[in-house]
Every structure is written in C-alpha cells, then in structure tokens.
Amino acid sequence: MSTILENLKYADSHEWVLDNGDGTVTVGITDHAQDALGDVVYIELPEVGTEVTATEQFSLVESVKAASDLYAPVNGVIIEVNETLGDEPELINEAPYEGAWIVKIKLADPTDLEKLLDANAYSNSIE
C-alpha cells in the first residue's frame, strides 16, 4: 500500500504539493507514482525561472520500465530545483516525500491549492 501523507495536497496526475506557507510550494511525485514507475534512472530538471501552468507538462522522469511526464499541479514560476536528483534520481524511489522533492514553485494564485486533492480524496482515487 502506498504512503499518503495527510499534510500534503495531491494532483490527479500523482504529484504531491507541500504548501510552504509563504506563497511557495514544494512539489514531488507520490509514493504510488514512484512504485508504478519502478527504478528511476533519470529525471529531466526544468530551469529556474520557468513559468508553469497547472496540468501542463514541466518535467520528465525515466525508469527502467517507462518514461513519464510530470505535470504542474499549480500555476506559477519555478524558483528552485532539486539538483541532487540529477546525480541521484533513485532518491525518488527511496524517499519520495523527503529528499526527493523536484521543484519549488512561487504560486501565481494561492487558490490553486484549493483545486488539489486532500490525502483522503487522493487515496480514494488510487484504490
């Protein structure tokens, strides 16, 4: 069974979102998503300063099984990327909610968070 954290919001496309409380969010992929992908071998990290639009592709994760697009869960601008993943993409499998965050985004509209799933709704969506 996948780990789903109560303090996060979730997108239908299996990205998790942590509200940092300062107009920014941290984004990664869920335990369910990394499990479905299998062993992650590469992640395409976007550039800092890239504008992202909710539900549009912003990155790519490759595993031994498949490649999967990552979709922005909110509208905004990427303000930081987790450079560690460039050298250690396997962190996505090992610690999807801790060290394997992918980007930090400055929100264009904080109400975007209201459109995301809570832990219970996400859990129901993957059952």
Report on this model:
It is a single chain. The chain has a single domain (23-115), classed as RNA polymerase II/Efflux pump adaptor protein, barrel-sandwich hybrid domain (OB fold (Dihydrolipoamide Acetyltransferase, E2P), Beta Barrel). The chain has helices spanning 31-37, 84-87, 91-94, 119-126; strands at 9-10, 15-19, 24-29, 40-44, 51-52, 57-63, 67-71, 76-81, 103-107. With 127 residues, the chain is an alpha+beta fold. The strands form two sheets. The protein has a six-stranded antiparallel sheet. A three-stranded antiparallel sheet has the order 4-6-7.
Architecture, according to CATH?
Beta Barrel
What is the name of the CATH class?
Mainly Beta
DSSP strand content? 25-35%
- C-alpha termini separation: 9 Å
Question: Could you please say which CATH topology applies here?
Answer: OB fold (Dihydrolipoamide Acetyltransferase, E2P)
Average pLDDT for all residues: 96
* Tally of individual helices: 4
- Can you write the helix and strand succession as a string? EEEHEEEEEHHEH
- According to DSSP, the number of beta strands is 9
Strand order of the largest sheet: 1-2-3-9-8-5
